[in-house]
Amino acid sequence: VFITAISHVAAFGQLALSSQQRRMLDSVASQDVPAGAPGIATAIIQNGSLIYSRYAGYANLDDSTLITGDSRFNIASNGKQFTALAVLTLIDAGRLTLSDDIRQYFPALYPGVKAPITISMLLNHTSGIRDCYDLWSLQGYTWWEKSFNNQDVLALMTKQQDLNFEPNTQYRYSNTNYILLALLIEKVSGKSFVAYTNEMFAKLGMPNTSFVDDYSKIAGPVAKSYFNFGSWTTYRWIWNVCGDGNIFSTLPDQVQWERILQGKYKGTIKPAIIAASQQVIKGSLFAKYGYGLEFDTYKGMPYAFHEGATGAWKATTLRFPNKQIAFITLTNTGKSIPAMQTRQMADIVFDLPGAENFFLTKPKQAGSFIADDDIEGIYLTESDFCFQFEKKDGKMFLKRIGRNDVELEREADNIFHQTFDPAFKQEFTKDAQGNLQVTAYYTQHAPYVLAKQSADFSGFAFEGLTGRYRNAETDVVLAIQYTNNQQYTVVNASGDTSVGLLITPRKMLVDNYVINLLPNGQPIQIIYLNGERISRVKFERE
Fold first, then answer.
1. Is the preceding omega at residue 207 within 30 degrees of 0, hence cis?
2. What is the pLDDT of residues 285-311, one digit of tens each?
3. N vs C: which end of the chain shows fewer Cβ within 10 Å?
């Protein structure tokens, strides 16, 4: 993909940004950087040349240090591409193969799983291995308040008896994959992961880039990370897990990496290895993720990209190989959203129209009238994202788990919109089988559909779910108590109480989790918990 695209660079030519484009880029770069605030570092590289860069805001509010080319940001998951590159160097040296099973090196992992769990599957998140951060969250930990390291991750995963899914049958992003790859690199190379990758960064001419496995040794100057909850607030960084992220770098080092990818700097790592790192994994059934990179199209143009987020540190990289151009944004402010800003910059450079030209942002026309009484109820996407519509005091409300209720207004026979944000619209229609569904529209995303749920609870013993359930892999206990009207009180490992909403006799929604009830008689004996990056987590009645 990447190598082929290089031949088209000449046709595109070297960009010459107009003064108006530069003013627009400056405006986008500083839009979330008010006076006296932390900020961003951003750059555009084309055909090996830096054609735009901008620094805005403070690296340290305590001593009023401004962000400069020396400022080191935690680029979080954008570091996965470098972990993958390190794996490729070991493959090139004959020390590993993509088809190696991770249990050749860590035999204590998943002894009951018969299917192979290969290095290739870890690289593109098709291994089925659960995300350690979601497991820690389940255990009640606020992970960044801890000083866990990679050995702690290995210990946690050694206790896991099952996977999210059968290996190589699905894609599900999991940070654990890349932490295990970091441990693998240590075992195979005989050096610490940080030492091995530091040698790699030296060969790439990136002296100010390094993973961190000891927070007390982070080299400065660091752009400190700040949230804003009425005032700017920083926090102590004490995290030692790395490989999935926890990598500090400067904007010039990241520009240097893009110059290498664009063939304008020759380090001592073979060009074939560099080129391979920018392609999908050969032979993989899943082509959306490769060596620490996602692949998709942006407004009709193929691109490779990745996002990183660790607290208020966030980073985005976009690469458009057909145009031999890359965009980078690094931030240390909770106010900035580089995933959006960086794409706004691409819109300016490529003179692209707004999102409404690429997907519908509102219904095409009104349809048949749908009564309020018919609308009320629970609606789900295929991935169990939930809308609940409820009429209170003569007004319709949208309820979403973990968010405030939203008041809606009817604007047409079958169309509503959010009272205080009319761009958020809901269109009610019927599918081919005559079942009610709602399509959600907004200016910032493609429309999506949720289907109204209907369930027969006749004969269902609601009290039969009340009890305490334990997961042996994490030693977490969930306490579930029936209240009324398909609702339960659920107490988690931290002692926090949530409302559980029973959608069907076999499915409950609790915060950001889905609990599946095994049809095994009454009272219920086994439940399975599913989250964003963990699934099939088995809990048995105590």
1. no
2. 999 999 999 999 999 999 999 999 998
3. C
